Hints:
Helices cover about 35% and strands about 20% of the residues. It has a domain at about 60-200: Vaccinia Virus protein VP39 (Rossmann fold), CATH 3.40.50. It is globular, with a radius of gyration of 16 Å. It is α/β, with parallel strands linked by helices. A hairpin with a 6-residue loop joins strand 6 (about 180-185) and strand 7. Strands 3-2-1-4-5-7-6 form a seven-stranded mixed β-sheet, sandwiched between helices.
Amino acid sequence: MSGVDAIRGVCEAVGTSEPAGWRPYFDIVQAWDARTDLTSARTDTELAEILFLDAAQVIRAGWTEPSSSLVDVGAGVGAPTIPILLSDETMRATLVEPRRIRTAFLRTAAGVLGIAARATMLEQKIDPAEPVVDGAPFSIAVSRATFAPEQWLGIGARLAEEVWVLTAGVEPLATGDLRLVRQLDYDVPSSGAPRSILAYRR
């Protein structure tokens, strides 16, 4: 399956249209992946799901509001934040990534994709006890596979009005003074593995 078909397959599975810029983003990731192991994807289908599935779900559900700001902690390859930025030119984001090679990738991708004016890349680690990111507070805080969900919830709540917890289909978390305001449950198309995105606010 080609990258074009793989991206189309994700969009069709979710029931959303493909935003402009997703194919060039896929191509940039694929080119860097061949040299630097940015992702664990073994096929075009797996790569498309890693890059676009979560973004397609929140876009279809209307979770991305115009002119909002995101902070992505442990941004890695930039998903789901870069695909979200490509879907709405009014949004902006700060991507925080401690590894230099991945920060270099993110800056390169932002330049090639024409979103550099709306995407700030910070090469830094986050102290879970005292999370600080220039530009806070943000509208949304997101992180994927960087912290345990319970730990991330406490970190994200200090950076943004709303915290997204991306999980493998777990039950809602005990949250103290935070409340679950919306939830998306879905399956990875190629494997059927369960996924959830939980959104919390104070």
